[in-house]
Amino acid sequence: MTTASLAELKRALRNVPSDDLPDLCIRLARYKKENKELLSYLLFEADDELEYIKNVKTEIDQHFRELTRTTPYMTKKSLRKALAFTNQRIRYSGKKRTETELLIYFCTKFKKEISFRNNLTLKNIYLRQIQRIKKALTTLHEDLQFDYGEEVKLLE
């Protein structure tokens, strides 16, 4: 079975009767947790982005509370899990402002709670996120660039 391109899928979905669309969405959501989470975001949280950001920050806090700090390896593994969660939530939103705000929050928690000066791997993870923030900043409005830019300077 060959997979159709996004353009082909878009054309085909336009031809589907509107009564059948909910059934298709439910069937799609049934197969993967990520699909269900994305559908939940689109239906219930996409209209209030600030509340969504607040909820994600709360979950990031929870990830940092559960961080395993027994060995540097376990710290790195737990941290990557928290980062994967953050990146997944950023993908759901698809907005650069949300990406910037969540990554700044993640890096703030990272810098405050983890000593990474002596660990090259943890330091590289941190620096990569700073680079991602700077890249996302370039696409934002000038006022937002200035506001978030000040926060990024504090992180560096």
Briefly, what is this?
With 156 residues, the protein is mainly alpha-helical. Helices cover 79% and strands 0% of the residues. The chain has 2 domains: 35 residues, no CATH class; 108 residues.
Structural class: mainly alpha
Order of helices and strands: HHHHHHHH
- Our Rg estimate from Cα atoms comes to 19 Å
Helix content range: over 70%
**What overall form do the CA principal axes indicate?**
globular
Could you say how many structural domains there are in total?
A: 2
Low-confidence stretches: none
**SS summary, helix count:** 8
State which percent range the strand residues make up.
under 5%
Largest sheet: none
Integer average pLDDT:
89
Q: What is the count of β-strands?
A: 0
Separation, N- and C-terminal Cα atoms: 49 Å
Task: Note the topology.
Layout: H1 6-15, H2 21-31, H3 33-45, H4 49-65, H5 72-93, H6 96-113, H7 120-137, H8 142-155
Helix pairs in contact: 2-3, 4-5, 4-6, 5-6, 6-7, 6-8, 7-8
Describe what you observe in this structure:
The structure is a single chain. The protein is an all-alpha fold and about 160 residues long. Helices cover about 80% and strands about 0% of the residues. The protein has two domains: about 15-45, no CATH class; about 50-155. It is built from eight helices and no strands. Helix 2 packs across helix 3 (about 35-45) and helix 5 (about 70-95) runs antiparallel to helix 6.
Summary tags:
single chain, 156 residues, mainly alpha, 8 helices, 0% strand, globular
